[in-house]
Fold each of these.
Amino acid sequence: MLDAKVQPHREFLLAQTAGQKLFLTLTVTPTAQARQARPDLSVVFVVDTSGSMREVVTEPTGTTGKTTTVDGKKYEIVKGARNKLELLTEALTGIINSDLLHPADRIALVKFDDMADVLVPFTPATDRTRLLAGVERLDWYSGGTNMGLGMQAGAKLLGQETGSRRMVLLTDGQAFDAPVVEEQAGVLAGLQIPVTTVGVGDEVNTDLLTMITDRTQGQPIDVVPDTDNPQPPAVRATELPQALLGDLKQAANEVVTNVALSVRTVKDVVLERVTRVQPTQTEVARVDGPLQLGNVEAGIGATYVLEFTLPARPAARMRLAQLGLTYQVPGANYRGEVPPLDVVVEFTGDESMAARVDPGIMQWVQQRNIEGLVAQATREARNDPAQAAKTLELARSMTQRLGNGAMTQVLDKAIGELGSSKTIALGTAKTMRLGAKTQTLKASDGTLPSDEDIRRMTGA
């Protein structure tokens, strides 16, 4: 029920040369039988109800001249505008009333502020009255941002569920309990439950949300207030309901779950890194035992890049590693494994043969490198804005060659801010970091750099 294939970026490597890199793509695709087996969904929404969720994020139609104070912070009362919590309530109401949900699907709702509470335990999607009543209660609460406690409550609920399980975490601020967040990300990763993080506004801890999605093989959604004139790949606040419906549709489309990868290498061959590069980009956590690759959608499947460092070898054709995959198809109540996949290359003394690289694989490697360059530039901007601009220029050259217009646009904005103010605005930095994970566009052959450029930029 799961097809898999591997392809090295080079068929030939130089003999007697230590330290060479081998990039290998692993592509997995559900079979026709698996694609027809929609899983039953168990989705818990873990919602930030802190005071800042009352901040207006859509354009007002008028002012009242009045203010209100929530948790010690003053907010202006305006006409015709909606705040973060109102938009979220609208989004959840739309999901509950959506025809995307099947009778066997189950929904739960958890809120967190100073503490976490289960507003609705897992409930059949058909019980709309109970679910909608829980959504209405979200506005009853206020306080701080103990995100870890909310994740803990949600993970406990999900641990008792079957089928395709998912957590959707919605927040607009910094977590007061970051160590608990990190701990719960590990718990959810162990349960093989992906987390979709929805960060609203500029105050979110982007590094923390990125850690959660990487550890759990989830995906981030970057939401920017309409009043900030957001640009892609950010989602406008008014588009939050559609974004959450899209995430639910994706969950229903993930027909293969709990994909785990085992890698056995020959002596001195080292697996350095595994990255999912399509449909979204996340780093796969290195753990003892099988590596958790997450879930796979029907139709598009998923692509991973494995990076190996190789020892010196004599001229010969040889196997470097063997891959094993296990998986589940919950909609068919099936557990399976893929026959072992051998990684075989040929070592040669012919430099011209060793110089040939697969451009399709190297564009995935470049895409992976863009995220690293963006993170590097974000750090450099604090003390050396000129160097940060140079780093972003390199990232921009890659996005242009890959035909990634949305990322090129946001990189242009960041470079412009460094030139004018010697810093990158919080909102731009967040959109840039999360966009590097979600804007995974594959280039046409005509936009690729030369083999020499590829080797220079990637060390391949």
Amino acid sequence: MRQRTFISLALIILLAIVCGWLALSNPTIILGGLSREVKVHLGLDLQGGLRVLLQADVPEGTQIDAESLNVARNIIERRVNALGVVEPLIQTQGTNRIIVELPGIQNPDEAIKVFGGTGLLEFVDAGSTPLTEGQEIATTGPSSANSCSPAVAQSNAAATPTVSPTITSTNGVTNTNPIASTQVFTTVMTGDCLENATVVFDQTTNQPQISFTLKPQGAEIFGKHTANNVGKYLAIVLDKTVISSPVINSPITGGSGVIQGRFTVPEANALAVQLKFGSLPIPLRIETTTNIGPTLGQDSIHRSLIAGAIGVAIVALFMILYYRLPGVLAVIALTIYGLVVFTIYKVGVPGLFAFVTLTLPGIAGFVLSLGVAVDGNILIFERMKEELRDGRPLPVAVEAGFDRAWPSIRDSNISTFITSIILLVFGSTYGASIVAGFAITLMIGVVIGLFTSVFVTRTFLRVVLDLFPNISLWWYGVGSLPRRDKSLAPTAE
């Protein structure tokens, strides 16, 4: 028994050292060919950034299937990842909204252009009409004949040609020559037939261009049209806005080409990202945008740290003054609890999640779970004091305190964990990231709190009993015992 206790103590000390190193520093861990920096991942409310709410822009009464909304979310996520944003949050809300949160974003306007635009690229047959860059035109839109993706082809089933785009185009060119709304141009091919798109520079003018390659089906469509329409205009249209209108000089059958226009480098990069990761299956409009400054985030962190430090200090003082030695051991166990939880926030749990993005609600969940862990220790210590007052020997009272408090601790923690799961499902389903963040940190805290209050504190008390078997009961919060034969074995119950 004693040997097992000291082995447990050694493992706890090792765990505390490792977690303390990971929690209190930001090391870079290298395992084989993998390298990872261990750091705190702050959410939007703590480091500042951009929050955008996108709303499906469809006629009233139109039903949007969940698959189309999820496809749109995935495309937006790929676009945002291409921006290099760290820890973005993109999730659906309800049946027709998508929330985009970009912590630490430096250029909100450019970011909105990249992920906000529908990104519907069309190669339009302009015939003998020279279209001007920036014109907004009506097109026949995607169909099974000119698209390489069924999702894109079906997205136009209920739509009618319109002159006004749903979302501002990415090239930012002023519309100087709109085409009459009655004139509808035929869509030859849509952008989903593109295999890849990258930014290149013209060797003569050094102007940015977008070089693209086509999928086999797209190359076939493009080759047939250019072969039959030499000398005519083929407009390149993004979100119903003309970005280029070149003349077909010869058949293009190689499956590659270049989009030319009056692009700046950021605009060319944004357009390449949109084309590379596809068009959205449903049109979206920007419902609201919220910029959160880093000053607000730093102020929130500062106030949270002060509040947390005051709360922990009060709890620690109460535990030490009221429970004395067990209270001191509980405070040490709670310190280990904090180090383990913070380490999980930074490194995650393999197979489940890579890290936890820390937000203000997440901090609230951590503080609440700390209270749950303290509550477990209080139940144990109170039960232990009852056993001592009933005349039980100290070792028996300690073990009985843990054993008889365990059912209450177990049931309360299970109830809290189930509630956390419900909150997590609710937050993930309805786009309430605040609720989800609170639930995740609370779940982690409940599990680790159960470990520290039952296993760690129990190990500490067993070590103290082995080292100081004749210690005064005053150290356990019991002033005196009733007159009773201390040599008797505990009464069986």
Amino acid sequence: MEHQEYKVVNQSVRKKDSMQLLLGKPVYTDDVTPKNALVVKILRSPHANAMVESIQTDIAKKVPGVVDIYTWEDVPQTRFAIAGQTFPEPSPYDRLILDRHLRFSGDAVAIIAAETEKAALKAMKLIRVSYRVLPAVLDFRTAKDNPVLVHPEEDWFPPCDVGGDPKRNLVASDSETYGDVDGILADCDIVLERTYHTKAFNQAMMEPFTTYADFDRYGRLHIISSTQIVFHTRRILSRALGIPKSKIRVEKPRIGGGFGAKQTAVCEVYPAFVAMKTGRPAMICYTREEAQIAGSPRHEMEITVKLGATKDGRIRAMDLYTLSNSGAYGEHGPTTVGLSGHKSIPLYTGSLEAHRFGYDVVYTNHQAAGAYRGYGATQGIFAVESIVSELAEQLGMDATEIRDKNMIQEGMVMPAYYNEIANACALDRCMEHCRKMFNWEERSKVRDMGNGKVRTAGVAMAMQGSCISNVDVGSATVKLSEDGTYNLIIGAADMGTGCDTILAQMVAELMDCSVDDVAVFGADTDVSPYDSGSYASSTTYITGQAVVKACGELKQRICAIAAKMLNCEEEAVVFERTQVRRINSEQAVSLTNIAYQSQVGNSISAESTATHSSPVSPPPYMVGMVEIELDKLTGKVDILDYMAVVDCGIPINPALARIQTEGGIVQGIGHTLMENVTYNDSGRPLESSFMQYKLPTRQDIGRLQVEFEHSYEPTGPFGAKSIGEIVINTPAPAIAHAIYRATGVWHRELPITPEQIALSQIN
């Protein structure tokens, strides 16, 4: 569908905060908060499963500078969840601020409040704890119906029924079926069944979990935190601390990266509790080790896919089962797992006659998992795309051609995606565009480069969503200021994604002004209109549509004020950039004069607040192709070129969309080839710093090329869909495909390390 030309939308505009960041101005939580706050530190459990028999803090409290130390006996006994989700949360209420029962290595044992970090750390060493070590569930494959219960307590509470049962170590469980799966599989020419395993990758954002707590001039708890979810955090703290939401204010400054980790209120409750107990400001800033061992990583998943197809490559049926490791607490487990099937199976709507999707989410004695860019789709797409590539290789078909034959097309109903219609889908054009630009026909061939090195290529495609349909709410306030410019107030959280700039572009487009004439503020529970928060790729699509509504209403109000000034009916005036003019007349009033007039004897507000939610979540689509060079002797894989073509509807800011895509691809490369999470025999994570947890650098990623294929989503602002999450989903299956073509061995567990590749060549 052809879209109209825009003045500001679909233009590469510089991010509004870019100069502040480049000049090193104070913008993050630790920069903008007072320096007289108490330092909050957490004593953490060395055991994966243990009961605190006794804890002695008397000696530690005598350390000069120590204000107090709190244990499980000092905190409220109301269980809560820290997942940033809309109420009522699908997450079970299974946490206490501090619990006598410690459920993973890194779980909180005591809270230390001190004048200095040095005093807090010294006191931590002097706390004496007697533990009764219990058997631990460390293999998620054995967690379901294990005699060892991670949550044996009787006050475990699920706000929503998602199939959880703590007596079976189940956080959630469900299954769905469309069509006669078993009958069609039995009738297929070829049936493949494979199992894939992905680890609990860490977000490794630049700024770790950081929160400041104090009391404002009205005696209300004031939280300044690096969070994606100011409104959810307020609700979480209200329940955990036992105080009304009206007594809590949460705001966020600039966020130094989140990638989903800060959709979970990982650390906010600790300084909030200290502030309440002491009446003094309190601050917590996780170390990198804490962020690694007690953060909110991606869910470890094992996904079994059974696929049935004809000899000519038509995929008729798919059966997918996901086992997800939620860790010690439920958090995002019930919602993440759904995307492993709902965002992978629909890719093949073009041919599927039947599908089945079932899952179990289990408790284990590992750190709790949470949200991470891709949110379960990453794991599911790795499995589905890998088995489709394997089917192509087994049939002797080109991997792009088998996808052409089976992929979702515009206008199709997607039974595996809540029966939504693909109103805007350029996946076929993405594939063709990528194939031509990448030169797939030549580069997909296996080429011997000498010295045991070979070059070849792999391909994958993906889809995601643009919100949580029928759940997410976005709001925006747009108001006319005295100088004829605009203020945009939002509850969404810019965490480096550039949503402040993107939403300002929408205002500029609709109000026919410059982006520089739009000042953005957010997010603050006292000031911002309600917004679910920045997650689920929802900000551009949901909050953006709220901006569209608010601007439309504001124009009407501006025209109503102007009509009174011009002594005519509202229908007789027209909005024109910097003024409102009377139709068929030279009479006009400027926006500045309208703004001043709105302050004198006026009953029409020169501002508008609008809210939006959507019954659908239109998917963005992507195709990725990668060229690798593989050393068969060492197993080392070098990424030479990664080509991506994305359909995100109409990109509001192509430069920011490109950066999002490049960043997601790099993260996906890291997950595929180097990031690893392993545990010792007692369940302690071994990769507790960046010395052990390897992240990709610029030298690891080769050349990245990103292009866009436009579609027009009728339910989105200016035809836009999302882009934040889909971009991480293609590297793993594409690289795994390329490695197979280079070695003849399929690797079905991530990461695919050089050691694994080299050993596979020997075996």
